[in-house]
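Weekly puzzle thread! Below is a chain. First person to post its structure in token form gets bragging rights.
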Amino acid sequence: QPYPTTTGVRGEAVLGLSDATLMALSHYEQGHYAQAIPYWRESIAEDSTQAMSRLLYSICLLETDSLPQAEALLNMLSRDTGHTLQGPTWWYLAVAQERQANPESAQQSLEHLSTLNEGIWSTQAIGLIK
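Winning reply:
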């Protein structure tokens, strides 16, 4: 019996994820960020409420130096308080700002993160506040 894959009908039935999301995750997990980007776009077009898809898409944008797009997506995600990914959202927003030579904004993002109760994310932010 062949090993089950995470794509196609079986993956959708088991995980409730679309083929696009599964392909995006597959590329993401292998560190193939550029290849993951079109699949994240498709995944988000199918269901824009998926905070995890938007977060991982923004990380792929960061890792491929699409910094303004990553920051814009993370800014939108940071204003959507209806998800449980506030810690990594604010962390990667600070990363995007820092990589664009905007340390003041990065510090503000870290300061905001330090006020949230986001476990290790908040603890790390506190350690980086100047």
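Puzzle host: Confirmed. Bonus trivia for everyone else. The first helix runs from residue 8 to 15.
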